[in-house]
Amino acid sequence: MAYTISLANQKGGVGKTTSAVNCAAALGALDKRVLLVDLDPQGNATSGVGVQRKKIKLSSYDLIIGRAKASEVIQSTGFKNLSVIPSQISLAGAEFELIDMDKRELLLKNALDEVADDFDYIVIDCPPSLGILSINALAASSGVIIPMQCEFYALEGLSQLMLTIKQVKKLYNHSLEITGLLITMYNGRLNLSMQVLDELKKYYADKLFKASIVRNVKLSEAPSYGEPVIYYDKYSKGAKAYMDVAQEIVERTL
Ligand code: ADP
Ligand code: MG
Q1: Are 126 and 137 in contact (CB under 8 A)?
Q2: Residue 213 neighbours by CB under 8 Å, 6+ apart
Q3: How far is the CA of 168 from the centre of ligand 2 (A)?
Q4: Residue 84 pLDDT > 90, yes or no?
Q5: What's the pTM?
């Protein structure tokens, strides 16, 4: 049975997609069989692993509305142990189309069950909202990773996210856990970053990943080449950071 992880945070630009793509690729490099599920209509995780949006025939949209099976929408990537369910902009309509569907919170979970034994990890990249797509992701997950930037407003919105996680756990998925909080785009030379990190350690010590993701230009360049950072520049700080996080994910999910 795969351990399914959602990268969730309703804020945009906090590093969800970067973390989903690079944790997925790093877990693959650690010999785990990994499926990356792109659940954001923007499709940045899809292009981040080299899948051209124009060439997609079936996507996470077809999966979630029940028009295709998981085994039909999965594509291989050029990277070790890494498959992907791509997304397309049509997914943006799902939010509305799902309104009157039966058990609409569990559509993704039920659809992924078919392939859960084919993978060690399923990594879901969520959109920047707490709408029905993110609820589906959380309902389908064993754990959540919350990427956050070390900025003044980092904690703002965190309580809303925690509340949503708690509600999904209660209503749809009793075993949902918080796999960890992941600091992204960290700059250790900024006093503010250090202060926010200290604050987070006070409240969430046991949940914070030991490894923080530093701000690293290779991480922002790699997607335009359609490559996870460990393939784009394996000696970069970003590559090392995500390998460390993947190792910690494995330890936390044994
Ligand atoms: P989200 O999915 O939460 O909206 P992204 O992963 O797309 O966030 O990241 C937002 C932007 O920041 C992207 O342009 C991405 O390339 C860049 N970025 C993310 N993490 C880093 C990092 N550690 N260092 C440098 N740039 C980063
Ligand atoms: Mg994103």
Answers
A1: yes
A2: 15, 18, 19, 147, 182, 183, 184, 185, 186, 219, 238, 241, 242, 245
A3: 21
A4: yes
A5: 0.97
**Residue 155's pLDDT band (boundaries 50, 70, 90)?**
confident
Helices 237-252 & 16-29, crossing angle to 10 degrees? 70
**Among protein residues, the one whose CA lies closest to atom 17 of ligand 1:** 220
**Residue type, position 75, single letter:** Q
The confidence score (pLDDT) of residue 101 equals: 87
Strand order in the sheet with 177-184: 75-76, 82-85, 34-38, 121-125, 3-7, 143-149, 177-184
The ligand with the least distance to the CA atom of 222 is 1
215 lines ligand 1 (CB under 6 A): yes
Q: What percent of the chain has pLDDT over 90?
A: 83
Instruction: Tell me the per-residue pLDDT of 19-61, one tens digit each, with 9 for 90 and over.
Output: 999 999 999 999 999 999 999 999 999 999 999 988 999 999 9
**Distance from residue 14's CA to the centre of ligand 1 (Å):** 6
